[in-house]
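Most newcomers find our protein records easier to grasp once they have seen one. A record pairs a protein's sequence with a compact description of its fold. An example says more than a description, so a record of this kind follows:
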Amino acid sequence: MVHITKSFASCIFAVGICLSLSLSNCSAQTSTDITSHANELNGTSFTAHVYEQCDITVPSSVAFNVGDISDPTPAVTAVSLTVTNIVTSSASRVVRVSVKAASSQFTPSVSGASTWSAGAVTWDAGTSWSGATGQSGTLSQSSYKPVAIGQADAAAFSTSTLHFTLAANTNVKRSGNYVLALTWKVECMDGGEGGGG
């Protein structure tokens, strides 16, 4: 599993809380006898700026054991995905998790051999999301496709039953490992923006 802290505002993986001190009204111009008088100086305030953010845990790999190239192959195990510590700018904002292929096709086990395109990988919406609505989709290199959209004002959401499937491909002629990298995207959006990727 891969665990990431995502700050939406800065679009980097980082902890999104900073502490700033504003020293606006302090100066060295006041002379007071501190042995006989209590001194109270106002003007220092703390500001904690909190970014829209969350923590996300995604699988480090998904495996397909292809026993028959003429049949679709489900992933060996269902995928778990967890989003926690969600912070948004308003109760109507939601978190969307999407995926995109890093290339247009799987790298074949033998150079130049027939292989699967990225679009051969699909997933179902699932029925066991907690705090989110699952989205069915087809993997693409050209655009991110949504996997889940959290409920408005949810503090967290998760599933342990995200199912990926690899399509049949009777053009494949070589055994071995075929590899395709996947990129996950986490974003915060207004609740009415829907599931487009």
Summary: Residues 9-29 have pLDDT under 50 and may be disordered. Residues 57-193 form one domain.
